[in-house]
Amino acid sequence: MDKNRTEGTKHEIKGAIKEVVGKVTGNKAKEAAGSVEKNIGAMQKDVGKAMDHARGESKKH
């Protein structure tokens, strides 16, 4: 498993928590920062999936 997948998942979870805390406390800055971190984590996880897929395809050939 590519490191980007695990790191991306960690950022997604951390961002989701920040986003919820921001909503609950009414802190729009924390909510926005959480949303950004969550989305960056999702992109990083997708990069990791693509890397895993590419490695898998190269091993087939």
From TrEMBL:
Name the source's superkingdom: Bacteria
A Pfam family in this protein? Answer: CsbD
Q: Where is the composition biased (Basic and acidic residues)?
A: 46-61
Region listing for Disordered, in residue ranges? 40-61
Q: Which residues form the CsbD-like domain?
A: 4-55
Q: What InterPro entries does its record include? A: CsbD, YjbJ_sf
- Family annotation (Gene3D superfamilies): YjbJ
Write out the similarity annotation: Belongs to the UPF0337 (CsbD) family.
* Stated name of the protein: CsbD family protein
